[in-house]
Design goal:
Layout lengths: L13 H14 L4 H6 L3 H16 L5 H15 L4
């Protein structure tokens, strides 16, 4: 349970609703970290750009990136 109340789609502006739709398409649902970060749309945009930049990087094989991401998530107890 988050300490900060998540922003629901009906409370959000157009940009946040767009991010919610893209997140739902990619992951199947809108995850809590995105809903909490939606309180600050500029930060939400910056985090999205960082994620896209990391996905676009070609210096490491995609399979190795996936394994490293999974290992990091397991170490910190992240469910996704």
């Amino acid at each position: 349970m988050a300490r900060i109340k998540p922003v629901e789609a009906h409370e959000a502006g157009w940009f946040v609703r767009l991010v919610y739709a893209l997140t739902k398409r990619k992951l199947g649902r809108v995850v809590l970290p995105v809903k909490v970060t939606a309180h600050h749309p500029r930060l939400l945009r910056a985090m999205g750009e960082m994620e896209q930049g990391q996905m676009a990087a070609r210096s490491v094989d995609a399979a190795l990136k996936s394994l490293a991401s999974l290992k990091a998530a397991m170490l910190i107890g992240c469910p996704f």
